[in-house]
Amino acid sequence: MTEGHRITIERSGRHVRVVHGGQVLAESDEALVLRETGCPDRYYLPADDVRLDLLTPSGTHTYCPFKGTASYWSLPDAADAVWAYPEPKPDVKEIKDHLCFYEVEVS
């Protein structure tokens, strides 16, 4: 990590639910929370808890020097609303096979 930049990942211990347009896209009690310097907390949900059938691969990819290359998925009315790191960097290997959404409910 760069001086002053920090990422921590831990089990959230909370119920995480993702709803879009009245439809539940994901729901999990096994989510991870990723905290990164300068960024909002992000919840990464196991792929098994995500309705992958509702997502369309978008072809968008971005690179983070701390996490690696992200792949994105879209919803019919929300482009690139979901992302994951298929081959995350070793320091964040826990997020492999997990997806992240821009909007989540946490209880």
TrEMBL record:
InterPro entries: DUF427 (IPR007361), DUF427_sf (IPR038694). Residues 16-103 form the DUF427 domain. Gene3D superfamilies: Domain of unknown function (DUF427). This is DUF427 domain-containing protein.
